[in-house]
Every structure is written in C-alpha cells, then in structure tokens.
UniProtKB/TrEMBL annotation:
InterPro entries, per the entry: B30.2/SPRY, B30.2/SPRY_sf, Butyrophylin_SPRY, ConA-like_dom_sf, PRY, PRY/SPRY_TRIM39, SPRY_dom, TRIM/RBCC
SMART domains per UniProt: PRY, SPRY
PROSITE patterns per the UniProt record, alphabetical: B302_SPRY
Source species: Gopherus agassizii
Pfam families cross-referenced by the UniProt entry: PRY (PF13765), SPRY (PF00622)
Stretches assigned to the B30.2/SPRY domain: 114-309
Top-level division of the source organism's lineage: Eukaryota
Protein name: B30.2/SPRY domain-containing protein
Family annotation (SUPFAM superfamilies): Concanavalin A-like lectins/glucanases
PANTHER family in UniProt: E3 UBIQUITIN-PROTEIN LIGASE TRIM
C-alpha cells in the first residue's frame, strides 16, 4: 500500500484501534524519517570533512608560501653579496685577451683523464694551445696577389704577375696559403680584415687541387668563412649566415686537429662566430682570400696579426 500523506500520519498515530494498514503506514513513515535523518547526518559529516580538508590545504599552502618567501629572501641576500664580485670578474674578463679566454675554455672542456692519471689544475701543461706566427707561402699565391716582404700581408693587384707556374700555385682562385703545415695540436692565429668588403679565411687541406675553379666546402677540403655583399657566411653546403653584431676586426681562427674543430672568433666583441667539426687525417694550411679590389673599395690587404706576447707561442 502507498504511504499516507504526511499531514494524515498524526491522525493515524492517535487512533486507539489501529488496523494493519495503519500500522504499516506508521512503520513506513518511521523508516522514511529514519533514512532521511541518516542521509542528512551523512551530508553534514561530508560537508564538515570538505571544510576540514580545505582548511588543512590552506594551512599547508600558507606554510609553503612562508618557506618560499624565506628562501627568496636568502637568495636575494646571497645575490647581493655576490653581485660586486661577479661584476669585477666579468670586467676582468672583458680586458682579458681572447687567446687567454680560449685557453680557459679548452681547460674547462678537456675530458677527464683515465684512472690513475692526474690532470694539472693550472699552468701551461693544463692546455696545449700554440698561437702560431703564420706567414704566407709565395709559391702558392695566385699571380694577381701581392705579398708584403715580411709575408704578413696580401692584397689583390690589378695585373697578372709573371710568376712560375709551379704545381703548388693557385692559377684561377685568387688565394694564398700559409706556409705552416698542421698535422696535429691546437693552433690559433688572428687576421686583421679592417674595412674590407670581401674576404675569405680558414684552413684547407694541403693535398687539394690548385688548378681551375675551386669550391670552398669541407667536402672539397676547405673550412672557411667569408664576407661578401655585406653578409658573413660559413661556407658549408649549403652555406650558413653568421649572426655578426659588430664588424670583426681582427678575426680569430682556432684549429683543434685531434678534436676535429675549426672555430672562428670576432675579436672585436669577443664572440664566437662559427665552428666546423670534422675528422682530420691530412696536412692542413691556413687559407687567405683577399677578394676582388672592387675598383679600389676592397684594395686594403689582409694582415696576419703578430703573436700575442703573453701567449708565448711558437
């Protein structure tokens, strides 16, 4: 039977003689109110648990915020203490020759020695880097190139000189090689490019072909960068533009034969321009291309810089 309406239940309860139907209605009503009371109690408990959990989470977050703010305060204090020393260190490095910075980089990136060997912490033995007193090899110079008597400068001339047609000489590409032969070690030299509008510098293999037109790519034995039409590029295949902020003058060239690296540096702002990575197994030479004179606009020579006195190179 259906449950009697709620407003009739008190009347049913007051009846002295209750029929089975009345008793059934009262039982159903009691059960209904009991379950409603239990549901209400459960709802209140769940609500209290939610409030408790939210409060606990709020306290946790507040504690984490306090700890983080305290740590930030400590870091700010540490930065304040280190700031003057860091500025002094950076200012010192700004006045440090690029060659010395390169030696520091090599020392920091040198692989750890095997067990049982001791790596020097300082001194000339920690890094084997030889600044090179590069000179030009006149036997390789194109007939249109003019070399200085000390073989430190090269520029493009207007006339074809009557030079011997020896096999070492470039007969088409107006370039010249350095006389130094590299078969190992770490070498560094600098070339003053001044306000020239065209040039190419780098290293190349001794065994390459000197006849006819050449292609300046690593696949052909050249690891070079160049300036042409106002754009600096590394001559990979295809070539890669270089992000140059300040005109490099001079350009630093670093060769790590065993490490398979040829790097170029802008000595003006002490930035790294580009690095070729390769495996070297043949003799290498410095490479110089002064570019076309362009009606005198590019007549200035490429000048090999003196070896820095503090480097003590060979």
């Amino acid at each position: 039977p259906r449950l009697a309406p709620a407003f009739l239940l008190p009347q049913v309860a007051k009846k002295e003689k209750k029929t089975p139907r009345d008793k059934w209605q009262l039982y159903r009503a009691a059960s209904f109110f009991a379950s409603s009371e239990a549901a209400l109690l459960q709802m209140e408990v769940e609500q209290w648990l939610v409030v408790f959990e939210c409060e606990r989470l709020r306290q946790f977050l507040a504690e984490q915020e306090r700890l983080l703010l305290a740590r930030l305060g400590e870091l700010d204090e540490e930065i304040g203490k280190c700031h003057p020393a860091l500025i002094a260190e950076l200012e010192g490095k700004c006045h440090q020759p690029l060659l010395e910075l390169l030696q520091v980089r090599l020392c920091q990136t040198r692989p750890e020695p095997s067990a049982g060997r001791v790596r020097p912490c300082a001194g000339t033995d920690s890094v084997t880097l030889s600044p090179v007193d590069v000179t030009l090899d006149p036997d390789t110079a194109h007939p249109n190139l003019i070399l200085s008597e000390d073989r430190k400068c090269v520029r493009r001339g207007d006339t074809h000189q009557g030079l011997p047609n020896n096999p070492e000489r470039f007969d088409y590409s107006a370039c010249v090689l350095g006389a130094q032969r590299f078969m190992g070690g770490r070498r560094y030299w600098e070339v003053e490019v001044g306000d020239k509008t065209r040039w190419a510098l780098g290293v190349c293999r001794e065994s390459l072909n000197r006849r006819g037109q050449v292609t300046l790519t690593p696949e052909d034995g050249y690891w070079t960068v160049r300036l042409r039409s106002g754009e600096y590029r590394a001559l990979t295949f295809p070539s890669v533009p270089l992000p140059v902020s300040f005109r490099p003058s001079p350009v630093g060239i670093f060769l790590d034969y065993e490490g398979g690296e040829v790097s170029f540096y802008n000595v003006t702002d002490r930035s790294h321009l580009f690095a070729f990575t390769d495996t070297f197994s043949r003799t290498l030479h410095p490479y110089f291309h002064p570019g076309l004179s362009a009606g005198g606009k590019n007549a200035a020579p490429l000048i090999i810089c003196p070896v820095p006195d503090q480097a003590g190179g060979n």
